[in-house]
Design a protein that fits this description.
The chain has 161 residues and is mainly alpha-helical. It is 75% helix and 0% strand.
């Protein structure tokens, strides 16, 4: 089981972390037990390096999901179904967002190929500066400069949109 707590003291420590991070929810024990079940199910197909972190994060996420679900049910009970349906963006907002996206695409095309490549590796591929530097054979400082240059240019390019 690795670093999964099996004694009472470890369980209480985890419970305390969950309670603190869940802002004093009364059901912290239930959340932690549900997280334990998810951990066991997840481990059947995946490796978990830090089971305690997995348990705490999963318990917090379950608490957030539960709160959202309760809020949704409360709105439905109050008869505010129009409020629930209004979460979708309005058509004019979608049109403006698409126009802004096109503006960003145009701005990306104006960047130098290397700056664009570095910026997209970071923003789209989610790579860290160190990983980009290693992949492209450049310094981490150069990566930082490329990303800063791209971000500044795109901010100015899209200003007012």
């Amino acid at each position: 089981m690795g670093d999964v707590p099996i004694d009472r003291e470890s369980w209480r420590a985890l419970l305390k972390r969950v309670s603190r991070r869940a802002h004093g929810r009364d059901d912290a024990e239930d959340l932690l037990q549900a997280a334990w079940l998810r951990l066991e199910r997840y481990r059947t197909q995946h490796t978990v390096d830090n089971a305690q972190a997995f348990l705490v994060r999963t318990a917090i996420n379950l608490g957030i999901d539960g709160t959202r679900h309760e809020q949704l049910l409360q709105r439905a009970r109050e008869g505010n179904m129009a409020e629930i349906a209004s979460d979708a963006p309005l058509q004019d907002e979608v049109i403006v967002a698409r126009a802004r996206l096109e503006r960003v695409k145009e701005g990306l095309a104006k960047l130098t190929p290397r700056t664009r490549e570095v910026f997209l590796m970071h923003r789209i591929d989610g790579l860290k500066y160190r990983e980009i530097a290693q992949a492209l054979g450049i310094s981490q400082s150069a990566v930082e400069k490329h990303i800063a240059r791209a971000a500044l240019f795109l901010a100015e390019w899209t200003e007012g949109w």
